Fold each of these.
Amino acid sequence: MAKEKIFSDVGEKEVTRAIVEGFSKTFNEYVDSDVIIVGGGPSGLMAGKELAKSGIKTLIIERNNYLGGGFWIGGYLMNKITVRAPGQKVLDELGVPYEKVTEGLYMTNGPHACSKLIAAACDAGVMIINMTKFDDIVIREKNRVAGAVINWTPVSALPREITCVDPVALESKIVVDATGHDACVVAKLEERGLIKTKGFGAMWVERSEDLVVEYTGEAHPGLVVMGMAVSTVYGLPRMGPTFGAMLLSGKKGAEVVKEKLKKK
Ligand code: 48H
């Protein structure tokens, strides 16, 4: 007697069509978004979650095939994530278990914290495109940032002689630079003499985290900066392997974006 089949009769062509059509539909819809967040690290994911939760059409573009940036492995190749108070309140919100190390310092496991944050952003309705590298800015009247020029990461990674492939552009009301130390979006404004960045300063955790949250905001019309990119833009001290400011900067950045969208 023939064994009963476990799986359906769906073949390769249906699988391929599902992927191509599904991606095209999403991509087509998000060619025009309210907000494009460049960078899917802790600050970008946090902001994306908050924005999408408020019904704002939010797209995260991430150059890697994974999300989370530096949030998987906190520091020194040891996957413990620390947050200084009040960062643990965000861990509570995300349902991430943690331990108290000492008064004002909390510790959790990177994979657990990062996967919960990614899931929260996805649950809130953020659209995510991976393996997509931010390449340049779209500029409109009065040098307002109005979108992102992107290309597939493998195309950007190969020498020009063998990948002479033009990028495409996405439009949005606001662009967010959440690309970490390199502040890649701001760098494109700087290349054109539209902004001057200072580069992040030496480590001084007690100062750094408050300042990063304080300076999170619009760095140029249409461009909001959050996370470690804030330190790079304003020359603030770095904080080392602790993430409270990244999470709170993402939250504050989302509030700034919401205010900007109200005025548009
Ligand atoms: C698409 C890009 C591009 C690009 C980069 O580095 P991240 O984790 O950034 P933050 O700011 O959310 O968090 C910083 C934190 O991880 C950290 O490094 C800390 C606290 N350091 C302290 C210190 O003293 O050093 O994530 C940025 C994300 C990554 O996933 C990148 O792959 C992505 O942005 N990205 N995506 N196009 N051109 N550049």
Amino acid sequence: MENCIFCKIVNKEIPSKFVYEDDDTVAFNDLNPQAPVHILVIPKKHFASINELDDEKVMSALFKAVKNVTKKLGIEEYRTVINTGESAGQTVFHIHLHILAGRPLNWPPG
Ligand code: AMP
Ligand code: ZN
């Protein structure tokens, strides 16, 4: 998708070091980390949010990627977040799953 910053990262138009990659997903460090570990997992294919995500292969690939990334980094306890829509805090409209770890994470988040 043109002018999508995360598509540009997938296509390597914006240089980024992937902490993980498979056929359907990539993962990289968040630019503005909210915890010592803050990784974004995204599908290579563009979907704006959960609301547009209609590909079951991609749905399962995202969960598999979370398991693989955390295993690779040796993280057993972490928070996953997907913001959907502006009022929920979504700022980049290419679906992404946040993985946060490395500090106590309060619940509810507020
Ligand atoms: P959200 O607010 O859920 O849409 O999350 C978007 C996240 O993308 C934020 O945590 C940003 O810090 C992060 N972000 C934006 N641009 C980049 C980038 N070029 N590389 C890595 N992370 C980014
Ligand atoms: Zn995109």
